[in-house]
Amino acid sequence: MTDTRQRFDDLRRAEHADPTDLDALWADLAVVEVDEILGAWRGGDFATGHLASTVLEKVRWHGKRFDGPLAAVPLVCRDEDGALYSNLKAGGGGEASLWPVGFRGEVTATMVYDRMPVLDHFKKVDGDTLMGIMDGKLEAAFGVADLYYFWLEREA
Description:
Blueprint: H1 3-13, H2 19-28, E1 30-31, E2 39-45, H3 51-58, E3 61-68, E4 71-78, E5 84-86, E6 96-103, E7 106-113, E8 118-126, E9 129-136, H4 138-142, E10 148-154
Antiparallel strand pairs: 1-8, 2-3, 2-10, 3-4, 4-5, 6-7, 7-8, 8-9, 9-10
Helix pairs in contact: 1-2
């Protein structure tokens, strides 16, 4: 197991993940191309105490789905019966698209929400695992300005 993968796993399991440690991990990860992330992904977050974590738990967030560059589903959630659906309401009334976007001096695959001033930047831990940082006008979306750190694992 690589040092980077071990750091990722340790931060994912941590009771509290410090954003400084998450930023250091992010800096060591490889950028990813849009076509590399197409498909269905199960998601979770790092325990930073961000309000988005509580919001996503309430809507029973499962993950994301990237059907194509102009067809991204940011909030795949579970209904009361466990079925997956695109939660348009929690996503501000829209879905998203994928673009290569500059963030922290690198260009990487980024999900741009249709109706919220929010960007999800992605870097790869490995071929089936991504780290994401939600950026943008988070205060408008969640009432807090801090970045939101999360992860995605490719579904079979």
